[in-house]
Predict the structure.
Amino acid sequence: MLLSDKAIRGLLESGRLEIDPLYQDTIRENGVDLRIGEEVAFPSFGGEVIDLRSADPEKHFVIREIPDEGLIVPGDTSLLLVTQERVRLPEDVAGLCGLRSTFARWGFLSAPTLIDAGFEGQLTVEVAWTRPSPVKIYRGIRFLHVIFFRLDGKSSRPYSGFYQGQRGVSLPKSLGGEVEDLKG
């Protein structure tokens, strides 16, 4: 069941859901809007083949702080944005992230991103700027809309993975342990 603003407020008031900082305009009709945080990561791929089993993410991204005067994003660029807010979900609630409609109408795209029950940390999402012209982004702009839904019960395995507790923009992990060796 998708949670309403009243249900979200109830979870926040009970302490089962945390959003910090929580602004007056964060809670919307059926979700929350989250803001651009202090950092961004740009890909720095040089045309080489990236092997997901062995690639070092730190060699393929450059993390930059977003200054008060904003940061220019080149045209046709993807980047990783982090939320200003830290969230903590209870074991029976998950979330689904998508861009705010206004942000998308300007020309940003992002794949839907799931927040697992039990997750705690800032959210990092990939966003693509699809226009050929550069665009200037600022910390504090509401860019991400999160809807919450209640599971049919508490998760038997709340999230405790690689991204648990993340602070700042988090680079992707290497997939070395997840890709099967097909040779045999």
In short: The two ends are 44 Å apart (CA to CA). The chain has a mean pLDDT of 92. The chain is about 10% helix and 40% strand. The chain has one domain: 5-44+58-150.
